Amino acid sequence: MPAWHDVTASASDRAEALLTELTLEEKIAQLFGVWVGASTEGGDVAPHQNDMDDVIDLDALLPNGLGQLTRPFGSAPVDPALGALSLLRSQRRIAASNRFGIPAVAHEECLAGFATWGATAYPVPLAWGASFNPGLIERMSRRIGSDMRSVGIHQGLAPVLDVVRDARWGRVEETIGEDPYLIGAMGTAYVRGLESAGIVATLKHFVGYSASKAGRNLAPVSVGPRELADVLLVPFEMVMREGKPRSVMHSYTDMDGVPSAADESLLTGVLRDAWGFDGTVVADYFGIAFLKMLHGVAGSWGEAAALALTAGVDVELPTVKTFGAPLAEAVRSGELPESVVDRALRRVLRQKVELGLLDPDWDATPEALRDVDVDTADGIRGTIDLDNAGNRTVAREIAEQSIVLVSNDGTLPLAAPRRIAVVGPTTDDPFAVLGCYSFPAHVGVQHPDTPLGIELPTLLASLRIEFPEADIEYVPGTTIDGGETAGIAAAVEAATRADVVIVALGDRAGLFGRGTSGEGCDVESLRLPGAQQDLLDAVLATSTPAVVTLLAGRPYALGSAVTGAGAIVQAFFAGEEGTGALAGILSGRVNPSGRLPVSIPASEGTQPSTYLAAPLARSNDVSSIDPTAAFAFGHGMGYTTFDWSAGQHGPNTVGVDGTATLGLRLSNTGDRSGTETVQIYVHDPVASVVRPVQRLVGFQRVDLNPGESVELSIHVPADVTSFTGRNGQRVVEPGEIVLALGASSTDLRITHSVQLAGEARVVGFDRVFHPSFTEIARSAS
């Protein structure tokens, strides 16, 4: 038996044994993927895809082997069972074509669910952040991973750990929010779920993508080393240590003139040397070729390949462009040592060993087809359900827990109104709950004659179910981004006739300018798209109580609604169960518990802006621009009330290596069960470098019945106060630290000043990331 088939040997030894048998061409073949099913006309599903669409001759490629298969399910609508059968046959062909029977790793997108036809469309990552519930997100990702694994997929390209720095950026919907700690906590949960299902999780985009100038996609990034270390890298650092992902995807952008795909200091120095990562680094689609095409740091495809491979990129995706013949020529000419190819190959082969792809009994048949005659496709269609009741239950829970009640003067919940007017462009749009990486929005729109594959009830349909006795009148008023105003008068008339008017506003997800939110759909300001603000202003000018609902991918300035609306409800692309959840919140069937993962701006033109603001980045007397948010990070309301009071705090002085203790008594003083999200913020009054005024370092959802109280002891390690000092080292400094417990970043209920005593202490990758919450007692009234 060949040594690489010996399951009693270590993964590294098995990989090394196979590596020594491979020719240069066979080695390189393991370092790229192919995207056979990609679209060559119509809408792209990756930037510059058509520029890269070289003809792939599989018969010529496969005898040397193949590293990856790109999106076998996610490139066109395919019945899941037929897709699994097609992948099985492809894997058999790949293994049979090369000398050593090595199959490919198959990867798919899974940002808000398995991105294939007929699979559950979960809420987008920004909604995960709004839930402040890591356990729920882990349940979701475990289900996503199980679905992917069942049909033969090995790797998922998620989660996105980019920190929102400018909400004009189109991909805000793909992020978890504007706070590094929140992103790290939720991202860790997602990775744990995906990896527990046997799927290789891929962190992206490493690093800085979201900090692009003016919020433009792929634009250059200019950040200092402190912002890089203390903001942009933190989520990756947390997830790397606590989630144990097996793959990372480099960012498209350049940072201070160095493209991420060619940045050895990041991909090797930080990722591998400092953090100990031993998995694979994969290219964002066409990112290696962009070193020549867009960045201008390579003069040839071979030079681009050598730059990326030397920096630490192991796999070229989505298809072979630079890692084929150009890379082989670079090695043969002496431009690149073969040892650099071997370094990447060891990582790739070790991962294939871990996935069971080099086991002697490897079988291409996925779990979902184990009891099916795979030699025929007869009767196989429709036998695999990727949108089952369990998936939809989790999707509904996330939607319900992520929708944020932003403001409410008592208009909500609606008390059985007789006449409801519903106006606005997201009222009757089934796509209004989907992000741009959902299959229907990402790929399905290119196949308009194909059914959606999942049920997507519109908000109008869900309202009619939620309020069966009401007379509901619907007038769109305008489109999402067309700018039409002719229908506004009819919307105003409908509002005037009603007991309450629901103004349904928001986004349409798309790609590269074909939407108002999504990849390449960046905006100049945070004004509502099209004529939606005009519609909103006109309806609010009536005397009818108005509820503003937003199904969107980013926060928008809401103008007159901040003070003029009876209530504002924010949903971030809440998935296929989203409209039912939203209707349930309007009726009161669901008590809202979501919190804002991004601030809602007061002005449409104050970007870039973030709650992680230093004193001079806040409102002051030396600038005429006031960046103060209308509704701050962490804010959210519900239909019950909570009383906060201080419990027993710990000592006022702790060591720089110690732990501070805060006590909290939290009581539900309302008449229904509810959830309060306790948030911990750190304020550093005097530091050696400028610090944010407030910074989230922990949170906990607390569920309480009416009249119920809970006493919590909260332990905050000094490590969470650390930051990058003047010498570039992460340090816990002695001195005063103000810890605050609050309901949002601007609603701080309890503060406790602590002196950190001792000498400044350097901390690193092994530092403590989280406070801990201990329930001391729980009692009913």
From TrEMBL:
Establish whether keyword Cell membrane is in the entry: no
* PANTHER family membership: BETA-GLUCOSIDASE
Say which family it is in: Belongs to the glycosyl hydrolase 3 family.
Could you tell me the superkingdom of the organism this chain comes from? Answer: Bacteria
Organism, by scientific name, is Arthrobacter bussei
Is Hydrolase one of the keywords UniProt gives this record? yes
From the broadest rank down, the organism's phylogenetic lineage runs: Bacteria, Bacillati, Actinomycetota, Actinomycetes, Micrococcales
Question: Mind telling me what this protein is named?
Answer: Glycosyl hydrolase
- Any GO BP: carbohydrate metabolic process
Q: Name one GO molecular function term.
A: hydrolase activity, hydrolyzing O-glycosyl compounds
Q: Which SMART domains match?
A: Fn3_like
Fibronectin type III-like domain boundaries: 676-745
Keyword terms, alphabetized: Hydrolase
